Inverse folding.
């Protein structure tokens, strides 16, 4: 299957326009497995499949209704829609971090900082506990929260993006810690006491009950899912453009990229800003659902966890980031309320140990991630070719 | 150090044979297009700590010529390249391109200004396809903003299309269009070298700098490369060539500058340079090294 695409006699002399379309198709057909099959389908089939997939995602809160299989999937110690909502903002964070780490290749260990900035901005503007006393609605605070998060990405990025690799990682790590410590120790940000009564998203049913209430997390999950879908489109568009190409070039050889005319600082800053924006998006959603937050929410573990999710799912691949983000939230929630057989405590307490084991296993058996990026997939395919040369 | 000396006898032969296959096609083709000064390297000195990598080097390139920069290993050829493309900043002296100083300009600005280069050891984007590699170069002159890419505005589609077409044409120009969809890492060494040239050409340069493009090539490949370099010049691009292989240099260049230990020791046509005693001593092997 691989050779028919690369050595087909077609690419000899046809007009450039038709040629490039052919090349594009070849690149898609090159892939094996499910994604290769998906890529070979006509556009309409791919759209329909996408819609079906999204619809299934929207129906996830009702998965427990499925006999036999359903109860295995739903969480026990936490109500299922809440677990789904948790997954949704972890997925958002993973998608955002994937832009920074997976696409642009900038190791960011302090990603939770942007999440915190988004959440705190909303809290400051809307909570009655805030010194600002503005008490805006959630929706009004959201754009400000996102703008401030994005700005914080630029402010952090501008002086630090000249650093590379480990050095950048240390600086971003410091950034997240600074945010947390400032939140803990400044009076305005209220430390451990936190902000309560952050308003929920607006909207009412016809009978006057709010759509986004306290008890039912399903609407929040749906909101999160809708936001995720928009983010997927946005990130995908960027990846399949000169922006994504520039990011990839920077990741592979920054100096060569620069000499080929890529404005490396600009595109790295954009990666940071976009990542920060998406992280802030997670933050404002989180604030809107929880209604309460304090400085303990934004511990370093959070950043590491999201990064682990991205790497586990497949760095540089959108589907991988989604899966990874969902898993890092789902696995601990699924462990809640299950008794371990030896000490008879909640397995949730062992979540990091189990996690660690899972991550080690994945790194051993599938180091490129569960759903590797196209580049990684190609790399693997090449190795297969080396083993069994066709032709 | 030893490598060029091993080659020396062949090179000397090659040099003798050089003018014959050089004279015919070249003189006719180049008589006209050579024109104004394109790039001026003016008294450039570059020090790394106590090491003087370039010592008051001056030369100038004229539009439409193929210019050779030669010298033994460590003579400062690549350093000179790096100073011209913004990788290093000269300690003193000036570099002017089309009349404007480019000292202190950023690398991407210099590229957009019209100087493109390849690398001595191939530096492609290994996981990108050949076509994508070239498209990165083509993007240098694209104006699609991040916002336009995000919302797929018409400019994005237009520039993607023209960029892809142009990149494909360039792949055909260097003769590797059949590898367009393959990742660069999987291309053969010769194809990678060609791809690098295509990528550099995609930035639409006025001046193309090739850093030892024939390194590791067999004679047949070198001959093809020679033809390609001429083709590039005939398409209106001035070419600056760093090369070890004397046959190649003598066969294709219009003028040559010879560097040794960071200093210019000779300048002139291939024939003049070949007969220059200083060059023979420095480049073609010296008695002390003969044993």
């Amino acid at each position: 299957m691989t050779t028919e695409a690369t050595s087909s006699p077609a690419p000899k002399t046809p007009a450039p326009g038709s040629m490039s379309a052919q090349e594009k198709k070849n690149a898609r057909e090159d892939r094996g497995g499910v994604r290769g099959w998906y890529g070979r389908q006509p556009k309409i089939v791919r759209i329909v499949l996408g819609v079906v997939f999204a619809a299934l995602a929207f129906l996830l809160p009702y998965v427990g209704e499925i006999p036999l299989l359903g109860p295995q999937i739903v969480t026990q110690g936490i109500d299922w829609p809440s677990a789904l909502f948790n997954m949704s903002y972890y997925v958002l964070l993973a998608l955002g971090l994937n832009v920074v780490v997976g696409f642009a290749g900038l190791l960011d260990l302090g990603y939770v900082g942007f999440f915190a900035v988004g959440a705190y901005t909303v809290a400051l503007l809307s909570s009655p506990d805030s010194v600002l006393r503005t008490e805006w609605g959630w929706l009004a605070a959201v754009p400000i929260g996102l703008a401030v998060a994005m700005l914080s990405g630029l402010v952090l990025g501008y002086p630090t993006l000249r650093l590379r690799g480990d050095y950048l990682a240390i600086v971003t790590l410091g950034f997240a810690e600074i945010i947390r410590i400032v939140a803990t120790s400044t009076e305005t940000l209220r430390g451990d006491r936190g902000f309560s009564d952050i308003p929920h998203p607006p909207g009412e049913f016809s009978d006057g009950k709010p759509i986004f209430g306290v008890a039912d997390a399903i609407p929040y999950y749906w909101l999160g899912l809708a936001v995720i879908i928009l983010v997927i489109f946005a990130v995908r568009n960027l990846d399949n453009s000169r922006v994504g190409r520039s990011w990839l070039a920077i990741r592979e050889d920054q100096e060569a990229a620069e000499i080929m005319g890529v404005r490396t600082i600009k595109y790295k800053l954009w990666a940071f800003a976009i990542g920060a924006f998406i992280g802030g998006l997670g933050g404002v959603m989180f604030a809107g659902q929880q209604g309460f937050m304090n400085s303990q929410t934004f511990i370093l573990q959070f950043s590491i966890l999201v990064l682990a999710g991205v790497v586990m799912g497949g760095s540089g691949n959108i589907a991988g980031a989604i899966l990874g983000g969902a898993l890092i939230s789902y696995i601990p929630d699924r462990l809640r309320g299950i008794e371990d057989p030896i000490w008879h405590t909640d397995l949730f307490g062992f979540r990091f140990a189990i996690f660690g084991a899972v991550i080690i296993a994945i790194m051993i058996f599938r180091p490129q991630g569960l759903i590797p990026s196209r580049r990684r997939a190609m790399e693997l395919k090449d190795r297969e070719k080396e083993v069994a040369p066709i032709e | 150090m030893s490598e060029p000396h091993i080659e020396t006898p062949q090179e000397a032969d090659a040099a003798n044979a050089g003018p014959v296959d050089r004279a015919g096609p070249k003189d006719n083709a180049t008589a006209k297009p050579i024109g104004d000064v394109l790039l001026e390297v003016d008294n450039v000195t570059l020090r790394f700590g106590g090491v003087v990598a370039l010592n008051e080097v001056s030369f100038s390139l004229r539009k439409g010529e193929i210019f050779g920069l030669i010298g033994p290993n460590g003579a400062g050829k690549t350093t000179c390249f790096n100073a011209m493309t913004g990788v290093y900043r000269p300690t003193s002296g000036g570099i002017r391109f089309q009349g404007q100083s480019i000292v202190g300009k950023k690398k991407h600005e210099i590229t957009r200004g019209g100087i493109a280069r390849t690398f001595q050891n191939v530096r492609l984007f290994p996981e990108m396809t050949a076509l994508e590699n070239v498209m990165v170069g083509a993007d240098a002159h694209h104006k699609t903003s991040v916002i336009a890419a995000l919302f797929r505005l018409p400019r994005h589609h237009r520039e993607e299309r023209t960029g892809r077409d142009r990149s494909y044409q360039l792949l055909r120009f260097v003769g590797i269009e059949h590898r367009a969809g393959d990742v660069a890492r999987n291309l053969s060494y010769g194809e990678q070298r060609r791809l690098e040239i295509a990528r550099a050409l995609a930035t639409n340069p006025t001046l193309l700098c090739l850093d030892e493009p024939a390194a590791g090539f067999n004679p047949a490949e070198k001959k093809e490369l020679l033809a390609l370099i001429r083709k590039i010049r005939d398409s209106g691009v001035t070419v600056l060539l760093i090369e070890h292989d004397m046959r190649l240099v003598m066969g294709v260049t219009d003028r040559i500058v010879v560097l040794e230990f960071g200093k210019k020791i000779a300048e002139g046509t291939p024939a003049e340079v070949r007969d220059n005693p200083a060059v023979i001593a420095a480049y073609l092997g010296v008695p002390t090294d003969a044993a």
